[in-house]
Amino acid sequence: MGALETRASILKAARELIVAAPPGAATPSLGSIAGRAGVSRLSVYHHFGSKAGLETAIAAAAPAIVTTAGQAAGSSPQDLVRLRVAGACERWAADPALFRRLPAAGRDSDHEADRQLALALAGADLLRPGCSLKEAEDVISLVASFEAFDRMHGDGRRSVHAVVEILIRLAGSILASRP
Predict the structure, then answer these.
(1) pLDDT in tens, 70-94
(2) Domain boundaries, the chain
(3) CB 40 within 8 A of CB 34
(4) pLDDT tens per residue, range 22-31
(5) Rounded to an integer, what distance in angstroms lies between the CA atom of residue 121 and that of residue 172?
(6) Is CATH 3.30.1360 what the domain over 3-61 is classified as, yes or no?
């Protein structure tokens, strides 16, 4: 088995074991992942460096969150908030069982994108009076988080579109009202 096949086999085994683990259980050991993949633990360390590195690679293999960078030209900041939230929800909806069982670092929001979006809103004077840049950044991170998505979606309790609309309304709390 070549290096790419070994890496893919480890990622597949880790994903399968993580998703199959009961809720609240620790992520599987590197030994059990290596056994499932048919490789040695040293191979796992060679490809990923650590358990945290493997978990980061698993999360990175999921669909990426749509970022607003490069979309600023011609888009209003409000449109960018919508794109940010919708992109995050699409990512979380692609594999909620996996994200639910990954440690928080594996399902974290893109904090730099959130900061840049908050800066764009502030620069366009679209933050409500009294809303700090940090508050805007925190609200954007919150509404784009897996935890917010999972709470609202609940494995289909609401459609992804309905969740996006709810989270957009929540994000509206940082925006200035327009006459």
Answers:
(1) 444 557 878 889 999 998 999 889 8
(2) 3-61, 77-174
(3) yes
(4) 877 778 899 9
(5) 11
(6) no
